[in-house]
Amino acid sequence: xxxxxxxxxxxxxxxxxxxxxxxxxxxxxxxxxxxxxxxxxxxxxxxxxxxxxxxxxxxxxxxxxxxxxxxxxxxxxxxxxxxxxxxxxxxxxxxxxxxx
Length: 100
Fold this sequence. Notes:
Structural class: mainly alpha
Number of domains: 1
Shape: elongated
Distance between the termini: 51 Å
Largest sheet: none
Number of helices: 3
Helix content: over 70%
C-alpha cells in the first residue's frame, strides 16, 4: 500500500531529522569543548574528538537511506532536506577547522 505525503514536510521523517540533529550535536560539542578548555593543540585526540568523528560518520548512511527512500517520491523536498543536512555537516566541520 502506497501512501502519499500531502502538504507535509519530509523533515518529520526520522531519517531526515536525525542527521541534522547529529550535526548540531557535533557542532555543539566543538563549541562547548573550546569554551571549556580553550583552543588546545594536543598530540593525541581526546574523547570529544572521537565522539565528534562518530557523530559525523554515523550520519552518512542515514542520509544515503533518506535519499534512496524519498528521492523518487518527492524529489524537490528531498533535495531541500539533503542540502540542509549538508549545510549542517559542513558547519560542524568548519567549526573544527576554524576553532582548532
